[in-house]
Structure formats: structure tokens, C-alpha cells
Amino acid sequence: MDNLAQIFTQQDELIAPVGAYQNEYEAIKALHSLSGEKRQRFQNLTRKLLGDLDQPHDRKAIAERSRMWRNKGNSLFRSSAKEFGPDAEAERVLGACRLYTKAVLVAEDVEDELCLAFANRGIALQEYGYYQEAYDDCANALEFGYPRRLQHKVIIRQAHCAAKLKRTEQLAEHIACLEKMQLNERFRQQLEDLKENLEMLRGQSSSEKSVEEQEKNHPIQEIVCQSGSRGRYMIAKEALPQGKIIFREQATCFVPLEQRLICQQCACSLMCAPIPCPKCRQRVVYCSRECRERHKSIHRFECIAYRKDLLKMIGVSHLALRMVLSYMPSMLQQLQECASSAEMWSTLMTLTTGADKEDEQTPQYLQSLRMISHLDKAPQAELVYHMLCANLLQVYLKECTDFFDQFQPLSASLEDWHLIVAALILRSAGQLLVNGHVGDALLPVNLEANEFGLLQSEMWQKPRHLQLGQLHNLSQTEPLTAINLPHLSICNHACAPCIRTKFDGCTAVCYSAVDIEAGDEIFNCYTMDYKKSMLRQRSRPLQEVYKFECSCAKCTRTDPDQDYLKFHRYRCENESCLREFVPEPLPHQTNLNWWLQSPDAAEASVCCPVCKETQVFAWYNDFMCLIDSCGEAKARRELYKAFDGVDKYLLGHHILKRKLAEALIEPCFAEMDEGCVLDDVDYENLTRIVETQLEGTAAQSGGNSMEYISQMTYLWDLWALSKCKRSEQQLQEMKGKLEYLAAEHREIFENYYNDFIEQQCK
Ligand SMILES: [Zn+2]
Ligand SMILES: [Zn+2]
Ligand SMILES: [Zn+2]
Ligand SMILES: [Zn+2]
Which among 5, 91, 162, 312 has the fewest CB atoms less than 10 Å away? Predict the structure, then answer.
């Protein structure tokens, strides 16, 4: 990272002064037209940076490390945990999958080890019941050179998995292959069984598929976009009741955030058998071979950049690069006849007009090309930074990949294409600064970036079925993707959004968050909304990033912070006052969360505006002290009492009340995970406290928010663990929240509900 900063500083000096900004094309052209010697030095710096990023690669050490993990996997897998009951059995098989996964990842491109690691993981996955993944691992083992004389073992396993998955074609193919091989008696017998299986499957096939396909079709179209002096915006064609799906948008381009290993093709985050690209240092994985195949056209140009670890340094420009890589084939049709970069640029800019005819059917590259950008208003240093990133990526594509080969036969020169590609990367980066979205998902609590949710053996009892009391360990909301959603980006900002967006892999599903009338504008919220922030807190990012001052109904009313302050109502501690009040924020204060500030910060103090007495909040420290010993039943009883006691000072759905609930619930569950046994009094009190917390969250963030659903996991665990009755209405309402989960999570929640909650209520 320092390296990048150093080089950029030196390059910045070479290009100064940068003239007035006109557009992305002119900005990059200026870089390309530096005078002779300067240009040479500028280019050398870029090449030096790319060269310096190469990392040593010790194949012998890699092989040893992979073998070490595989051996650990083997000894766990062959251990006799069977004798110790079902928990130990899950730990044995899933634990082995986890160790083999480490062997797969660290093997990198040492294929002798890689193929063995895949083969062994396949065995464990099959035993656990992950047949699809086991099937893929057999194919992986064969792909990476599994020893020929043993291949029949892998193929027969693949056939078994195909049979489990009811895939007749694949099964037939593997049987045909096995028939040509020399097999011993045992394998002959297995082959005969597989053939019988195939006949049986052929007898019963078809019918099932069509239902599934029907369900996937969900055409709901109610949007028009209008252009005019206000730019583009979105209105509802007809009345949309709350909770209706307004549109779905599948993103062509996203990148994982913070080095989290998620599938680079479908963005799924819960994996049990990640398949890495062996060539780029364990930085890219896929959930399946199919996803790996589909991502090839992009990854072939990114692989070396991942190997150099270049992409994590350049922030938003990585997604910008991906946009250019993804959209280039479509753009090429428009550009191939152009004779010069100037002509290409003007062709592209012509495409950006005519946005008034845009709808969801408009190709995504066109929608993206039309997104607004504020690079013209950016401070000089920021502009230069993005220019240098775009230049760096273009030089990378030229020096390290064959990306530019595709332009060789066309009329314009390669220099023209270098310029246009850099200009497009710069344009996309500028657009993403104001249009980029962040997709989130639930993940296991405290999961390391290189670990995988479905391999955490203490959580699972069988594939995608959690153990009793484990749902709360799936409650961490994490931003996972930076994602380009040009259609959603058409929505303007308001501090009270009309939509709620669910991220399901790389698909965004937009629901109406309120009742929307026909003809109403559909607003998104780009920052914290009016209930979660004071005007002064959210207006800063809106000005700095999005370059506007919000004039929405919430911001322009006389008392713009009233809805925020509702969650900060106190009763004065002074016994002779006891008046209700909300603190008056000091001029520089952007929030009222005094408990998050360091205790010695003077400005954190809260004063009663009636009697002027500073509030001491002694009860707060008392409460926090008790939490340390929540492993003891007695301390927990005191905590429950203390929690009720703060009602005297914290009024309504005070946000601190929810923070206290969280501070209490999490460690109690952690104690439970550690083996601490809770009784009915605990369950009763914890249920009541989680319910209080959920009410507050529903009031401030909405009952379908991720925040709500993540806290709901605690309630579901309590329901599953304790034997008390739930009303049918309560159950239905809670089950309805699952709509707002990504498909991969929803399945797990539904399994949990069916395994532990529903049957108990009968
Ligand atoms: Zn995938
Ligand atoms: Zn790669
Ligand atoms: Zn506003
Ligand atoms: Zn007072």
C-alpha cells in the first residue's frame, strides 16, 4: 500500500499542474500526452510498481503445507469418533472437510497435492451428504491430475453422487466410462448397482423440474423513468402496497469486500467446498465448478492482478475495472468501426443520451454508461488519484494480460484503445463513487475471512440444518459486496426511503417499505435515515460524496430531528425534578450516543434542561459490571432486574435500552454455547428482553430490516429451547420475515423452524 502511495506521489508531481477538468477522456489524454522525458518516467513508475508487486512462490513449502493439512484431515476423518455419539461424528466428518479445504487452498498450483486434497475432501463431503460439492470435487481431482491407476475410484464416487442427485445423464456418462475400465470384483458389483439405479431413475424422472422453473418467473414491472431538468428519477406507475416487490435487478458486476472469500460469480457466502483459482494465491474462490466456468471470461484478465494483490489497493477502481471487462463485449459492437479514440468517445457519449426511453430491458452496460458522476466537482487530489488508478489498471491489462489482443484487428490503433479503456475505467470509478451499492448478508459470528460458514462443525447437525440453539450464531450482518446496480441507482435520495433492498447473492430485490401512491416518486436512502441520524450527521456525507443538500420533507420541516430524538428520551435522575427531556446537542455533536464515547470526554455529558443537573448514569456502570459475571445464575437474575430498572430513566424505545439488551443477550448466549445451563426463569426473562429489543428495532429500523432479522435469531433459539406456547399469529408473523433473507440463508432458517419450532408448538 505504501508502495502505491509513493509511486502515485511521484507521478502526481510529473503531471502537475492538471488543467481544468472536462471529462474522463480528456483527463486520460492529458496523461498520455506528457512531453517525452516526463512520459517515459511516468510510464516507468507504473511498470516498476507492477513489477514490485510480484511475490515469491516456494512450491516445495507450499506442497509441504498442503500435505500437512491433508494428513490432519485424514487422521480426523479416520478417527473413531463414531463411538462418541452424533456430535463427535459431525465434528469428525465436517471437521475433516474443513481441514481438507485448507489443504485445497494452500496447495495453490502444486497440482500433485491439489488433486489429492480435492479427492479426499470429496470423500468427506459425500459422507456428510453434500453430494453436489462432492461431485464437483471428484471432477476437480481428475482435472488436476489424479493418478491414472486410481481414477476409477474417483469416477465411481462421482457416479454415486450423480445417482443421489438424480442426474441420469451424468450417471449414464460415468457408467459408460467405467465400463471401459479394468475393475476388480468389488467395483464390478458397485457398477452393477449403479446401472440398476440408473434404470430406476429413468423410470421415475421428469415432472419435478417444471414446478421449480415456474416459481422462478416473477415478472413485476411498474416503473417508469423520466428525464427532464431534474435528471432521471423513478415513479410508481400504480399504487404499491407496503411489502410488494417493485423490481429485481441482477448485477453483472460486483466485487467481494474486505478480502472475504465469497463466490466471485454468484456472491453466495455460505460455502462448504470452496473451489479456488489455483493461480492467484487463495484470493479467489467459487461455490461450484459451474460458477468457476462462468466467471472465466472475467477472471482471465484479473487473475494476475489478484496474484500481485493489486486489486485490494485501488478501492472502487476494482469494480470499475470489472465493469469495463464485463461490458466491453457489448460496447465493442458500437465501437469496432471507429477509427480514433475521439470518435469512440463521442460514440459512447451519444449512447448516454436517450435515457428517457430506458427501462429494465435496457442492456446493463447502457444503463451503467448513463449513471451520473461528480468527478468534475471532486477535489484535485481525489481526481488525480482516480486518474492514476485508471492508468495503472490499463497499463496492467496491457503488460500482464492479453486483453488488448481483441482490438488488434480493428480500425483504431492500440494506443487509441489504451486511452479509451483507461477513460472508461475512470468514468466507471467516478460513477461508482455516487452510484455504487454495498450488498450485505448474515454470516456466522466472528468468522475469519478465510473460513467458511457451512464448515463450522459446532453449528451443524446435517447439511444446512443447524443444531438446536445455534441460530443466533448466524446473526452477524456483514457488508460483503461492492455492487453495480444501475437501475436501482436511478432512485433519488430521501431521508425517509420508500424502499427496502434485499441482497440475494448478486441480485437486489427492492420492496416497497411504505404504501406508495400511483405517480409518487420512489426514493432510496443513500445514508442513515431520519430516524437513525440527526440532520447535521447525514448532511455531511450527502454534501461531500453526493454533492447536494437534502431538501426532502424530513430535512426541511421545522423540527427535523424530532424522529431521531424520540429514541433519546430521558427522565431526569434528580429526585426533586424527575422531568422528561431530550438532551440538547452541542453545536459540534453529531449524535447523542454518550455511551459510545470515552468516559472522560466532557462533551459526552447529558444535562437536564429543566433543573440543569448533569446526569450521572450510575445505573449504566452497575449494569455493565454485572455482565462480566453472567455465567452465574445469581448475577443473571440481578441483570434482569437491573434491565427493568432502567425503564425509570430511559423512556419509550430508547436506543440505549436496546444496546443494554444486546449487551446482556450476547454474553448469556455465549455462556450457553460454552455449556452453561439456563433454566426456565432465564428463558422467560431472556425472551421478554429480546422481545423488548425487537420492538425498539422495529420502531426505528423497521420490522423487516436486517437488524431486526439478526436479532430475531435469538428469539427463535429461545423458542426452540424452551417449551412455552407461541400463538399461531406470532409464529406466522415471524416466519413472514424470512422473505427478506437471501435464498441460501432462508433455507437454513426454514429448516431450523421446521426442525425445532413448529413441531414443538403442536
Ligand atoms: Zn457461485
Ligand atoms: Zn486466478
Ligand atoms: Zn433529507
Ligand atoms: Zn432535571
Answer: 5
